[in-house]
Amino acid sequence: MAEMPVLRRHDLVHLRSGARIEGVAAAPEVLLADWVAQGRPFIARRPACADRGDRVPIGLPLPLALGKARLALAVAPEAMAAIVPPPLLADAAAVAPPGWAQRIGALLAAFPEARCFGSLAWQHLTGLAYLSAGSDLDLLLPCASVREAAAAAARLAAIGAEEGPAIDGELVAPSGEAVQWREWASAAAQVAVKAIDGVRLARREEVFP
Prior knowledge:
It is a single chain. This protein is of the alpha+beta class. The protein folds into 2 domains: 12-84, no CATH class; 89-207, no CATH class. Helix content is 27%, strand content 24%. α3 (101-110) runs antiparallel to α5 (146-160). The longest helix is centred in the C-terminal third of the chain and has 15 residues, at 146-160. The radius of gyration is 18 Å and the shape is globular.
């Protein structure tokens, strides 16, 4: 039996052809089988109380045409073919609406290593329509220190003040834990720290080295 993989939030999971997916009551089996056959990914999700300890919790946000439902699924470790990080913003930018070009250009100039998740990422990954008029630009920015996190939050605030889609980004610590950038930019003594196994409140100095 394969070992349980170590997953981080927003990791993308590709499954082997013919993989048995549990939790399919929420979606037609043929949809999930075709999803795998097309080489489209699933996403790591937070384990729920009902999840089995020997199964890998994965999720699937469906496109606009299928109602944008979020499916909670699970697979055995041996069903996994690959685990990859979320896409680079530079790659996903090709499918962004024309009105996003200036904002994305400014973000890439400041953060060439930025990755993205949410609607833009899924439209890029699948070729299906996920973006709507109200979609945010969801970013992941790695920060190695408190100083880098502060600088990133300040730069995001400056870019976000210009016209363009709302920026809903996370600052990601070396541990894989993340903090919403607006919360980090606030004067709060404690912040909500997100990880694959849950959310915790932590003092600011505990988040980044």
